[in-house]
Amino acid sequence: MKIINLIEDTPGSSNCLYEHGLSFYIETKKHKILMDTGASDAFIKNATQLGIDLKQVDIVVLSHGHYDHSGGILSFVKINPNATIYIQKNAVNDYYSIRENGPAYIGIDKKILLLSNIVYIDDLLNIDDELTIFSNITDRKFWPQTNQRLKKIENGVLIQDDFDHEQCLVVNENNCSYLFSGCAHNGIVNILKRYDQIFKKYPDKIISGFHMIKKIPYDQDEITMIKETANILTKVPAVFYTGHCTGKEAFAIMKEIMGEQLVLIHSGMEIE
Predict the structure, then answer these.
(1) 2-271 has which CATH code?
(2) CB-based contacts of 121, cutoff 8 Å, min separation 6
C-alpha cells in the first residue's frame, strides 16, 4: 500500500506547497483514494509534482465539514468528475470558528452539495473488504479543549459543535489495518474506542491530526490532558502519524512520552 501526504501545514519534500489543510493519497490493490482535499487546489499541484495521477482516483472521503479539508473538492472534480465522494450527512451544515473579530464561517463550499457523485453516510459503511467508513463517535474523554471555539448553527443559533459530522476511514490490506482521521475533533482516544467497538481490536497504524494546536500558551490542565492522552496511546500497539492541527508544542510533549511510536508528517511525505 502507498500512503502519501499531498498537503499539510509544514514544508516537506520535493518542493511541495504547504497550507493550513490536509490531504492524503492512498493506493491499495483495489483503489486509489483521497482522504480530504486540503483548503485549495494546492494538493493537485503537489500531486503533479509527486507524479500522482489524480484522474485515476476512484474514491474521495471527506473527514468532516471544514474548509481546510474540503476546499479542493471543486477543483478536483474538474479533472476527475467520476470519483465517488463520501461525506458524512451532517457535514453539510454551517460551521463557524469564534475569532477576535467575531464568528468566521469555516464550513464547506455549498457548491459541493450540487455535485452528482456524492454519497452521504449516516454511521457505518463497509465499501468492500478493504474499506470501511465510520462515525458516531460519542465519548468525550480527553476531548480537545481547542474545540471550544468551534461552533455550529442550529435553529438559527450558534451552539457548541459536537462534531457529529466527523468520520474516519479504515483501510485493510495484507492483514494490516490503517485508521485515517482528519483532525480527531472527537478526541483520538474516543475514536480508537469507537474503532474497537466495531472491529474488536486496534489498528496497526493511525494517521490523524490531534487538534491540540493553540496560538497562546497551554494552561496546566491542557498540558496534563496532552500528557495523559500520550500515555494512553503508548498502550495501543500501533504507530501514530500526526501533524496539521496537532501543533508543535503538543507534538513535543507527546513525543517525549511516545518516542518512536509518534511520527510527524510534512507536506509531500510518504508514509513507509
Answers:
(1) 3.60.15.10
(2) 86, 87, 88, 89, 133, 135, 167
Q: What's the CA gap between 136 and 193, in Å, rounded?
A: 11
List the one residue out of 240, 106, 119, 237 whose CA is nearest residue 184. 240
Average pLDDT, the chain: 96
pLDDT tens, position by position, 113-148: 999 999 999 999 999 999 999 999 999 989 999 999
- Cα-Cα-Cα-Cα torsion 61, 65, 70, 71, nearest 10 degrees, comes to 180
For 112-121, write each residue's pLDDT tens digit: 999 999 999 9
Tens digit of each residue's pLDDT (9 = 90 or more) over 74-92: 999 999 999 999 999 999 9
pTM for the model stands at: 0.96
Q: Which residues contact 113 (CB under 8 A, 6 or more apart)?
A: 92
Predicted confidence band at 176 (pLDDT cuts at 50, 70, 90)? very high
DSSP H helical ranges for the chain: 42-49, 67-70, 73-79, 188-199, 220-233, 248-258
CA distance 132 to 179: 10
Q: Is the pLDDT of residue 14 over 80?
A: no
Tell me the one-letter amino acid at 113. Answer: L
Cα distance between residue 178 and residue 35, in whole Å: 12
Q: Residue 255: CB partners within 8 Å, gap ≥ 6?
A: 262, 264
DSSP string, 101-128: TEEEE-S--GGGGG-TTEEEESSEEE-S
The residues with which 103 forms a beta bridge, in sequence order, are 98
